[in-house]
């Protein structure tokens, strides 16, 4: 995250990370992700472009704040399966969404029936938007979060930044037909304080607070022209488009 700040501990309890498992690169950050159900995280499909989509290569970490310090509510889970959005093709950024099912916590014991990730004050799912729901205009505060590049290096602590969802015109002007109706355009509206997602934040959430106080994952960090360039807003997969597919896959 460029132009962000340290998040409060436990401030974004749905923030998860996909990390490499085993080998020399154990624990290396692959992508951000959002817990949307005790057994499922939402991330972007392009996260699996580099190392492939076989589940044994990855693990999911939840409840984390400082990536190098073991914390009380931090847990890691094996990946049971990775489901890429069927219309995603690795040669474009369209349909850039994936669902990852995590293995249950039998090894740790003490979980509720049908639960995979153990939920608590530091580990809670975000809400899905309604099908075709638009981001509420004006009233809602939206944030991006992640451990990705801050402009100097990847962050050790979870970063947050307040961001505005922009009209699609901003991204259509900048990216022409690479920007599709499956995408959201977001960035900062003033030029002297740029805010953006960057390498390593991909797959992570763009959340906004509804007037009811619930937090909804409207976007999944996907792509953009570098980070923080003038007139280069960030592009996020529009989750509301995919709610029927998500519900079908996760079975609710
Ligand atoms: C990336 O390289 C990346 N500002 C992620 C997000 C954005 C640009 C690049 C959007 O993963």
UniProtKB/TrEMBL annotation:
The protein's job, in short, is: Plays a role in neuronal plasticity and the proteolytic action may subserve structural reorganizations associated with learning and memory operations.
Look up the coiled coil feature and give its residue ranges: none
Q: Where in the cell is it found?
A: Secreted
Domain named Peptidase S1: residues = 1-251
Look up the domain of life of the source. Eukaryota
Q: What is this protein called?
A: Neurotrypsin
- The organism named in the record is Triplophysa rosa (Cave loach)
